[in-house]
What we know:
Helix 2 packs antiparallel against helix 3. Helices cover 38% and strands 33% of the residues. The chain has four helices and seven strands. By secondary structure, the chain is of the alpha+beta class. The protein has two domains: 113 residues, Roll (PH-domain like), CATH 2.30.29; 38 residues, no CATH class.
Amino acid sequence: MATIGKDRMRRRFIDVIQPQLDVGETVIASSRTTTGPSPWLAYIIFAVVFIIVAVPVGGGLLVGAAVGAVVVFVMRLLGMREHFLAVTDRRVFLVGASAMLGRPTEVTFAGPRSAVSIASVKTGATWSRFAYCQSGARPLTMHFHRAWREDMQAIVRTTTAETLP
């Protein structure tokens, strides 16, 4: 993802968070993330459905778009959700994003940094992940595309004492 696209996306989400920040509170680290099943599953489903549908039909842009919409629907059913995670010097914000356009929808969590922990950090070539734990809630596996890897590492550094390679 191009830097200009990342900056524009980050600005949209920070604009949603900004009215909730206390005086003097600043965002230290932030990143786009996906929760739920591994994004690799979406790639596999897309490839299988595309081969089953597009090859006999003759393929094309319209068929590819239709298959992509089906995959998004299936992944939503399996629990995949888009989010934006922001860490300030005092709190953590988790903002929901729309599935198709990735635009901000609502702040789903805003709480003190002490109410959040990060565990099981795995850095991969394409997708990295960690377990995001809010006090009183079940852990979420958050997946970060390589375009957001440095941002994910900044979140881990600011939230935990763990250092990454």
